[in-house]
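Chain A, query sequence.
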Amino acid sequence: MPPDLANHEVAKVKTAKERRFRGTLLVAVALVLKAAAAAQTSQNLRQTPAAPRHRILISIANRKLAVLRDGVIVRTFPISVGARISPSPTGQFEIVTRITNPTYYHPGIVIPAGNDNPIGTRWIGLNKAGYRIHGTNEPHSIGHAASHGCIRLRNRDVEQLFAMVRVGDVVEIRADSIPQDAATYSEAQATRTLQTLSLSALAQPAGGQ
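Chain A, predicted structure.
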């Protein structure tokens, strides 16, 4: 074989080997980066666990709203429900929006956040058009059938409820009484339950199994 042709063949072999080496190196780098990304994602998930979901149970008859976590009542609030001519709906719904210091809109009327706002300081929208859970500028209406169908709470109560729930939580509104333990659940019992839940959470090992 002529020297020039031989050199050309050697160069082709070297080039092919270099390409294979570069290809192998790129694959190895990609695998390392993928593993690092997966490890970071896993660490982030461990550091920021998802907040526990709650279920809201509302009794029109009792004028009560109960918050349950894992089937355990952790808080109850007195409420106002729909008046006779504008009753609150019954059924199972879902929270779809959460708004802090909402603006009140009505045909020809706009009321910004403040003491005169009819929907109070927090707005929790449901997946049923026109109905939501919110505060009020008429705290004396709590405990009565006085709303246009929405569920009203005192502003201080709706602010606590707002902090506990999130989009996707289930809301069940029923016409009859809710279980007796929910209907008569006292604030002292709620405080003790919350303290117990907090202590249980602290006792769990980091990372969990």
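The chain has two domains: 1-49, 55-201. The domain at 55-201 is CATH 2.40.440.10 (L,D-transpeptidase catalytic domain-like).
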